[in-house]
Amino acid sequence: MDNLALCEANNVPLTPITFLKRAAECYPNRTSIINGQTNFTWPETYDRCCRLAASLISLNIAKNDVVSVVAPNIPAMYEMHFAVPMAGAVLNPINTRLDATSIAAILHHANPKLLFIDRSFEPLAREIIQLLPYADSELNLPVIFIDEISFPERVSSRELDYEGLIQRGEPTPSLVARMFHVQDEQDPISLNYTSGTTADPKGVVITHRGAYLSTLSMIIGWVMGTCPIYLWTLPMFHCNGWTFTWATAARGGTNVCMRHVTSPEIYKNIEMHNVTHMCCAPTVFNILLRGNPLDLSHRSGPVHVLTGGSPPPAALLKKVQQFGFQVMHAYGLTEATGPVLFCEWPDEWNRLPENQQMELKARQGLGVLGLAEVDVKNNETQESVPRDGKTMGEIVIKGSILMKGYLKNPKATFEAFKHGCLNTGDVGVIHPEGYIEIKDRSKDIIISGGENISSVEVENVLYKHPKVFEAAVVAMPHSQWGETPCAFVVLQKGETDKEDLEDKSLSREKDLIEYCRENLPHFMCPGKVVFLEELPKNGNGKILKPKLRDVAKGLVAEDKVDVTSKIVHRRVDHFTSRL
Amino acid sequence: MDNLALCEANNVPLTPITFLKRAAECYPNRTSIINGQTNFTWPETYDRCCRLAASLISLNIAKNDVVSVVAPNIPAMYEMHFAVPMAGAVLNPINTRLDATSIAAILHHANPKLLFIDRSFEPLAREIIQLLPYADSELNLPVIFIDEISFPERVSSRELDYEGLIQRGEPTPSLVARMFHVQDEQDPISLNYTSGTTADPKGVVITHRGAYLSTLSMIIGWVMGTCPIYLWTLPMFHCNGWTFTWATAARGGTNVCMRHVTSPEIYKNIEMHNVTHMCCAPTVFNILLRGNPLDLSHRSGPVHVLTGGSPPPAALLKKVQQFGFQVMHAYGLTEATGPVLFCEWPDEWNRLPENQQMELKARQGLGVLGLAEVDVKNNETQESVPRDGKTMGEIVIKGSILMKGYLKNPKATFEAFKHGCLNTGDVGVIHPEGYIEIKDRSKDIIISGGENISSVEVENVLYKHPKVFEAAVVAMPHSQWGETPCAFVVLQKGETDKEDLEDKSLSREKDLIEYCRENLPHFMCPGKVVFLEELPKNGNGKILKPKLRDVAKGLVAEDKVDVTSKIVHRRVDHFTSRL
Predict the structure, then answer these.
(1) Alpha helices, DSSP H only, in A91-207?
(2) Fewest CB atoms less than 10 Å from the CB: which of B23, B81, B201, B523?
(3) Which option is the CATH number for A443-578: 3.30.300.30, 3.40.30.10, 3.40.50.300, 1.10.10.60?
């Protein structure tokens, strides 16, 4: 039994880049990418990726070299998810909402051999280059601009540009054979930064094996059939678009690209291209419902929406579903290559009362098949919590879809993998039916008089209030209890248009606290409610709690609202513009 | 980038047995197995498998030991697909339709440490033991009987029995931890014989990695959602039930077990348990349509049927789909751990004319995601055929889901993997849309006057004749052309009941040949039509062409039908009873 040796035929390293070759062979007439007036078929995308990879190789890009990119959801960004690893290199997609200083910090840490940047970011690019230490050394970081594909800018013939690289690439058959053969499936395929602005940059190294298994897990978790029409509302720079960059190729889908996530753009694309799938943070539901939401419920099938980043509030969920969106909730993290929990939805749950359905849908769900283990453990004893839906612990996971580690950060890597699992830093419970529900980020938990308060639970109650549009709860200092919840609230549109008298604001705060006291244990009620015009968010629509926590730190429960509220307004505005 | 070392958290060998642990955790209240009056939940199945594995370990079953089993689709057969590899051993499921000599030949070759056998096969077991060479050596093969779970036979206390092993198993936590940790994902998980009766037994060695990846590929190919109700019409001994033994656990499904595949049993189970999925060879469609087929089209959803082994004839397909079965066609082979091509069905194909739909559905389809490569190659030049839907070549595949090789048969392993791919021995074409269609087994191709004739194409024409129930075409010797097609036909029920005069038979043959000449090039028409009461089939309902070929060898195109027809009847009957 042991004598059998593996051979070329059955010992093939796993990599998602094979999905591109398969797509060109299996879906030769299907549209791979739609970007405004420009369409490609899968054989065309395959050809463009092969050419780009050949050009990269001719530029001496080699194994383990990093290639960075700053671009919105455009065809080039999609193609690079294949072409860069096909050249043996590692793709480093950078959050486009970061400022020059943050991007320079990432580049300094990642040390790429090339930087691709969308032409719309040209001024930013100049600023970044100025900030890089290369300026006074012999090193040089070539910048390659990506022009709008249908209207390329005139570039000087000496300047490298994206389409030029594709044109001049010469993918010979032997070179192409090499491109699709990965030496070791544990080799890195991408480098995704979770935070670049701090002194402790965390560059998550994703492997070919992890990306392959994660892609399969996504397709299964979402029950994605053949030939989906996928709308790119989720930024591809975010966790490689939750691995759907690779999954759409695997399923022979069509990628509908979008530069800007606005309500008219989304609805236009859904109608025009008959979109079947899209991913987004729950905050995008607000974009979908604001303005003139289009009722899609008459269509032959729903638009399947995979949402994550934070639990979808029940009221929002109900509304978007009425409009023809079928929402599935997932939970993931960059360190796990994408989503790792899916709120699987058995048929019979459709027969439950609507409110109960919404509560169930807000749960993060069950571990994907790419994980070998999921558990919720007491942080101190390292013991599994009882499956009672009540006892909180840290969610820990294990399996081949996890990152290889943090680049050049052995300390953070060690901490992340302590106790033989990836410690997610998220605090949750396991319900008796097996579904995991996240109560909070461990750092978002509010500890009041020794009691753990889940900020998410308080937010859920606030979201149910008819006047509340968005809410975020963080800890604020309390003289007696140590900490107490502080709520930041954006009111529904009609509400804020009304006269903004100080006592109005005060009575609003009183109302909301009173409302919370009716719906929550008293110790969980916010000591203060701060009204904002919008919440500070990152590029993916995720609310930036650290920013709010900074603000809340300067408050105490006894302060007058009128003064602090104004300060808060100014400070948060400042943060928002920076992001 | 290279400095990152893998660790316990992210370096987890792939194995489908983790799906059992996950099912117990994620679907704690779901029914795992239904067998008549007996039901289990997933935690119960998990517990029983852990106990059985613990018992096997206590019997000194160790890594790479083979454990054989002869049983129909009963809970024990399902449990052993997990428990045996959990003990580190290799499961060897044996075709229950084989005779004692054939099974003894397999056992002699596989050299198992234990043989599990269903009580209904007790006389067969005695016969097998007699045939084993162990009788006069010191070696001994312990036989463990599996009794009907709800009515266990009285067994002497000294006799090992299946339920006894489960009862006495003591799975300690440290033992269980070991059970779910596979040392190397390339270790074998099962040993499946494709032919045990010849002098050249082929025991296909399947790895944990291959089984894991194949299971994921099946779920994706069939777009199988959460919590399916799966009816076991396909024997589990056949390619581990096309890996659905593991897939139902992966999806938290319910396994509805069935000892005998009869029309009343199938319909009873579908109705009683609300079955959503089943697998079968197309010949089972005949079982579904004979007698009193139940119209299921009123149900809220169809019964999804995955079919393979031979292309589903259009007429049969149409009928079963009218009755509420939604058929998907797949193609696989034991050497590839299960199905490897799925006839993916894009939505817009539902708008095509019905006949065209049936033609498309008969295609074998697109390679699964677990394969790295699928191609159709000219056997002599090893070049890919043009994708024109016409040029035939051998289907070759590559990827981690392939077998490790044939046990103790380096020559056959070498032949199978020659040229760096698995050579399937199936001859097909690639259509311009990328779908592969199999024209024949390479050994079933009929070569007439230098022209290749696909027996499947001739059969397809015969199947369209209203009086034809089943048809199989093989080569028969021809004095002038070398070979010519010989058709074996079973008529529709009403037809055979009529008076069986010799000239009737003769005129029927003439009719059918005439009909073929109207619908096929003349050189492809059968030189002879032989009418049978039934076609010889193996345990999976697959028509045994080698048997028919043996018969046809004794015929020549000029023979009188009356004589040969009778001989054929007798000879085929003999084969049928043997299988």
Answers:
(1) 100-110, 122-131, 162-168, 173-179
(2) B523
(3) 3.30.300.30
